[in-house]
Design a protein that fits this description.
The chain is of the alpha+beta class. 30% of the residues lie in helices and 23% in strands. The chain contains eleven helices and 16 strands. β9 and β10 form a beta hairpin. It is elongated and about 65 Å long. It starts with a helix and ends in a 9-residue tail after the last helix.
């Protein structure tokens, strides 16, 4: 909005209550590009003198996917060159750069820690095929693993799952690119193997896969440790998994998961998006029926999840 209109007013964001989620990196980036910003009564109000942003060097204090994306988009229409240092390297950054480039933007270095953008006067329409949601793909891969199943992920390329695919393989899942945009996932071991993970920005293990992986580790053979380094309040699913018979101890940013032979169905409550889908995964492997409350968390991030799992043989009913 700033790049196109020269001014913008938006409300402060919400989202899952998984810890501090400041927007300061976004706002500081816009200020570096020439915007004057005020936060008034829960709204961010921003204006650009002269109506056009100006390129600059932006040094991110922390790696942030969203801040990298918003700065990159704004810089495409800014006057002059912008350099983004300590940028996020996620596949989504690469994909956004491809889309913007197809629209006439001049971007180099997407997927590395330093991105150079040469501002252009305007963008034009283009066709672009968006990459698959790697977290959704990973979630379905774990669904196959936790149920000793076999599925094909359609529209997926293996490279987007870098960061967690090796951990899945170590746990006993086989992931194979069987065509240009199809990945076959098979659990080819009798017992899931315990694997230690630690969440980090890409290419590390993504925080958005942590809860799902913990669900898988609840039925693993052995003990695993899971360290959460991104958000300080992202173990809320631990207590709910424990209701289903999981053996998990959490202390601060570390959780120790001792695999059990079998989970049991229970009535549980979703606390956030990824926690809710971890309960679905656990329920697929549990003996008996599981009822998951507060479904709205799940529906924020997964399109027709129940319908897709039912097509793969799951027994799920959505009750509104």
């Amino acid at each position: 909005l700033l790049a196109r209109m020269g001014e913008a007013k938006i409300s402060l964001p919400g989202g899952c209550a998984i810890g501090t989620r400041p927007v300061d990196l976004h706002l500081k980036a816009m200020e570096k590009l020439g915007a004057k910003i005020e936060v008034i009564n829960g709204y961010v109000e921003a204006k650009v003198a002269g109506g056009r942003l100006t390129g600059n060097e932006i040094n991110f204090e922390k790696v942030s996917v969203g801040a990298t994306e918003s700065a990159m988009m704004a810089a495409t229409l800014a006057r002059g060159e912008t350099v983004l240092n300590n940028s996020a390297c996620e596949p989504e950054i690469i994909d956004l750069a491809k889309c913007l480039t197809a629209m006439g933007a001049k971007i180099e270095g997407a997927g590395t820690s330093q991105i150079h953008i040469q501002g252009v006067e305007k963008l034009h329409g283009a066709k672009h095929r968006i990459i698959a949601d790697r977290i959704e793909a990973g979630t379905y891969a774990i669904a196959a693993g936790i149920t000793k199943g076999k599925i094909i992920l359609s529209g997926v390329e293996m490279w987007i799952m870098k960061g967690f695919s090796e951990s899945l393989k170590e746990a006993g899942l086989s992931l194979t690119q069987i065509s240009v945009n199809e990945v076959e996932v098979v659990r080819d071991v009798d017992f899931i193997k315990s694997v230690n993970i630690s969440t980090h920005p890409f290419p590390g293990f993504p925080t958005d896969m942590q809860a799902q992986f913990m669900a898988l580790m609840t039925v693993a053979d052995g003990t695993s440790t899971i360290e959460e380094n991104i958000f300080e309040n992202r173990f809320m699913h631990v207590l709910e998994l424990a209701r289903m018979g999981a053996n998990i101890e959490s202390h601060g940013s570390m959780a120790v998961v001792k695999g059990v032979k079998e989970l049991s169905g229970a009535e549980v409550m979703a606390t956030d998006l990824r926690a809710s889908v971890s309960l679905v995964l656990a329920a697929l492997a549990a003996k008996g029926e599981t009822k998951i409350n507060r479904l709205y968390h799940l529906e924020r991030g997964y399109e027709r999840l129940a319908e897709k799992l039912v097509a793969c043989g799951a027994d799920i009913k959505v009750l509104y």
